[in-house]
Amino acid sequence: MPTPYLSICVPSRNRQRYFKELIASLLASPRADVHFVFADNSDDAGEMAGFLAARPDPRVTFLPSQPRVLSMQENWERAVDAASGDWVSVIGDDDQIDPELVEALRLAEALKPGLDAFAWSNLHYGWRTAETPRRNVRLPVKATFHDMPAWFVRRRAFGWADASATIVSGFSIYHAALSRRLLRRIRKRFGDVWFGHPIVDYDAALKTAAEGEAFVYCTRPFSTFGACPEANSAALYDLKRLREAHDRFDRETGRETDRDPWLADFPFPTTLGLPAAVGQVQMWLVHTHGVAMEPGWEANFARASAAYCRGFTDKADFETISTELRKVFSRWRGGAFASAFQPEFQPPLKGDIFTGLSGDGLYVADDIGGARSPTEFYAVMNGLLERPAELKPELRSAGKEFALLNAL
Which helix (H) or strand (E) holds 109? Predict the structure, then answer.
């Protein structure tokens, strides 16, 4: 079998309902140049094994559940180990990805010889429950390619530049694609493993920013972040669930990660939310692998923490997280960056959601066309977008369009 052009890896843990829907959608693709790695890490080893056995496909590598539960880090590691493509991408089992992104990736590689990392706009879909309100989703209306300077990617990844509630480096193995060439360099520099830190998605994003040299960004969406009710991402703005996710993460990792030695000068536990979690990975890279942070990152981090607090729509949760973060900022580095932490409560908007055109974005309801999952939602959106094989072969300089890219 020839080497596939793209390997799409999907690690999963006890979310068979979502995993099955994603697998079915991927196997429906007729492309022969893609490779699928499905890494099951469920307590019931038989359910997904039987599901895949009934759907034989030469493009699939299935990694069954093991006698013991693997950590997320271990499951992602073995998934990427099994990938054989020239390019590799990882998504979650409650997400969606379009194998037709190969067309855009081939074009990006032709436009930028030596390309290390390719990223695209992502859609965001919250799996619906009886309690879930309708939301809108922004769909970029332009499909353009942008040459992203390495200094710009690093400034965002290690300086918290342009950050809202988290860094916006835009490039990772997660919901983006890395070349085999870059993956080899990352593994050689960072301890001969793909994922050295248990917060695997930001581990990959930060190492990509540190080691990559050639980056291209496409504004056309090719994947969807799907937040199912069981997902850690669904707990980001709910303190009770956030702390439950933290405890579960430590149990599966096998240690109290907030006590890691490289956090001696970074007193922000992951119970303080997303910016703290990203910062922990950064501190690991600084102290373990000598990666340098960008000047001014501390104040930007404080501003990002304030932006994170603004995402809490429950006033009590907002007050709790803001108070706890304010105490830490008052102590950290002698309180030098406490003034940059200025959270403001924003009550949830009432009324129907906005749909329609605003600037370069088309806002649509997440249940458009009766969509009930990321794959169904993307199928509707795909009908509104330019065909991947028909994208204009033009590489724009990102230098003139940073404002556009910062909004993505």
Answer: helix 101-111
Residue that has been written with the tokens 């990805």 in this structure: 97
Contacts of 390 (CB under 8 A, 6+ apart): none
**210 to 116, 154, 172, 202: CA distances (angstroms):** 12, 7, 11, 12
Q: Give the model confidence (pLDDT) of 356-405 as tens digits.
A: 999 889 999 999 999 999 999 999 999 999 999 999 999 998 655 555 45
Q: How far is CA 123 from the centre of its chain?
A: 11
Both tokens of 96, joined, read 């969606």
Sign of CA dihedral 138, 144, 145, 146: negative
Residues 198/72, Cβ–Cβ less than 8 Å: yes
SS3 content of the chain, % helix, strand, coil (to 5): 45, 20, 40
Q: Which long-range contacts (CB under 8 A, 24 or more apart) does 314-321 make?
A: 314/238, 315/345, 315/347, 317/237, 317/238, 317/239, 318/343, 318/345, 319/345, 320/239, 321/239, 321/272, 321/273
pLDDT, one tens digit per residue, over 45-64 is 999 999 999 999 999 999 99
User: Going by C-beta distance under 8 Å and a sequence separation of 6 or more, which residues neighbour residue 158?
Assistant: 206, 209, 210, 282, 291, 292, 293, 294, 297
Whole-prediction pTM value? 0.93
